[in-house]
Amino acid sequence: MKGIECNMVKIDQIELPDFPLLLAPMEDVSDPPFRAVCKDNGADLMYTEFISSEGLIRDAIKSKHKLDIFDYERPIGIQIFGGDEEALSLSAKIVEAVNPDLLDINFGCPVKKVALKGAGAGVLKDVDLMVRLTDAVVKSTKLPVTVKTRLGWDENTKNIEEVAERLQDVGIKALAIHGRTRSQMYKGEADWSLIAKVKNNPRIHIPIFGNGDIDSPQKAKAYKERYGVDGIMIGRAAIGYPWIFREIKHFVATGEMLPFPTVEERVDVCKKHLRKSLEWKGPKVGIFEMRRHYANYLKGLPGIKEFRGRLVTLMLQEEIEAVLDEVATTYKGFEIERTPIELINYHEKCPI
User: How many structural domains are present in the chain?
Assistant: First the structure.
């Protein structure tokens, strides 16, 4: 059997293990606190929330805050988006100063406020523009540049094969493809057959990562074998369930499922997430923004609504942790199974 060293996936000089698992950049989700618990559970490469190139140039506080990265997260990529060559080039230089491992361009976000302004998936309507934007970024930074995109704008313009070749020609080092068009948003089933066509294109030599609908170790292994991608990117399935990374790794390696995390494990990770949120965002914002996560960590527990109601009203860390401890005690020994990603609705937060 070949050793891991023989099967490494390389993005320029960044070495990743065979069949790496990537955490998708998700707006209002993939912040440092969330990334910390995903890293603990086996994410091989993570990305920041996507950052507006215009916001960076304007020195917008929210955009600048998203540049925060930490050594324990490495390798880590910072993702930017925009539809103007000069703005993207300038923002790439700003990103380079923070010293991430790579810079990623978002050509896939389908939400109206991004796509209809000629950024994100909106660029899919003009491949020549996409190439010019990418070329401008590649030429303005020493960082490896990667791209995240979709199959095309709609059913009639699935141009991902052309896109992959042309972006590789201007110097990108890896490509992640979500198996839907912009028009599909997050509806229907992701089509991985076109992702496989890109991967099997003899002209393509950069790593190709698939994204879309991976919500179980079984599906991850099946898609690995069926479509031959270099790795997979996971978004919604990790929200409230960072254990998905370790479960996939174990199943791919052994064919066996790990036990589901216990309620105690769920509470412990939720508490770590809370503490990281407070450290990074401060006591007020950290508590407010953590409220969106409790339902996902505790999903599947009967009668949990009363506890959730308390968690989203408390303003002190000690009181929140006391309620979480009460949850662990109340549901001790209760077994929760995985929740399909279709039930986790972050669609309008652009999880791409």
Answer: 2
Residue labelled with tokens 């401008």: 136
The catalytically annotated residue of 38, 109, 270, 350 is: 109
* pLDDT band of 115, cuts 50, 70, 90: confident
341 within domain boundaries: no
3-state SS record for 233-280: EECHHHCCCCCHHHHHHHHHHHCCCCCCCCHHHHHHHHHHHHHHHHHH
Whether 274 contacts 321, CB under 8 Å: yes
Q: Quick check: bond before 302 cis, omega within 30?
A: no
* pTM score: 0.91
**182 vs 301: CA distance, rounded Å:** 35
Return the SS3 of 20: coil
The parent domain of residue 120 ranges over: 4-258
Instruction: Identify whether residues 190 and 236 lie together within a single domain.
Output: yes
252 and 310 within one domain: no
Residue at which a domain ends, from 228, 258, 288? 258
CA–CA separation, 329 vs 325, rounded Å? 6
Q: Is residue 348 part of a domain?
A: no
How does strand 208-211 pair with strand 231-234? Answer: parallel
- 299 shares its domain with 240: no
**What is d(CA 19, CA 15) in angstroms, rounded to the nearest whole number?**
11
Helix (H) or strand (E) run with residue 216 in it = none
Query: Mean pLDDT for the chain?
Result: 91
Would residue 270 show up in a list of annotated catalytic residues for this protein? no
Residue-wise pLDDT for 25-49, tens only, equals: 998 899 999 999 999 999 999 999 9
| Residue 350, pLDDT score | 46
| Residue 141 burial (CB count, 10 A) | 18
